[in-house]
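Researcher: Next entry in the queue.
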Amino acid sequence: MRVFEHLVEINEPRLPGVQLDRTQLWAGLVLRAEEPLRFVEGLEVARITDRREVGGCLEIDRELDFGSFRVRDTVLLTAPDESLTRVAAGETWPASTLQVRIEEPEPGRLFLRFVYEADEAGRAAPDEVSRRLRQQAYQELDLDTVRRIRALAEQGALSAVPGALRGDS
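Model: Structure for this entry, 169 residues:
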């Protein structure tokens, strides 16, 4: 398993605009799972193929069509602080996971921790340049996710998350 991990501060003082609370941040992660077209550049069609409750969590199976290829994944939402996406292997990519976890080391100071793992057993290890480029791409995608969540919060679009997923106990 190859691992890449990083943190993004949500309410960084240098960022203008709305200051998100934990509930809004969680709602953004839920929306990212439910409506990936709002978050993923180049995604042409997203279809939810199954949705079920598993031990108090919501599990969503999706098919993501990028035009030239399709990805099948499953997102497990554990309210109110974790999203785990499992991507099935394809012809040109390994099975992988992305865990996104809300962390709040002190009240109001929110972070998202992104952890990427890929099962590259039997595949040639990427060279250092390819590895770094992949990590930079992941970071940019994750920063874009935070920008989109912030924009949705400013538009008031994060209050419509179903109660069971809000995590407000």
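Model: Residues 37 and 138 are 17 Å apart (CA to CA).
Researcher: Noted, moving on.
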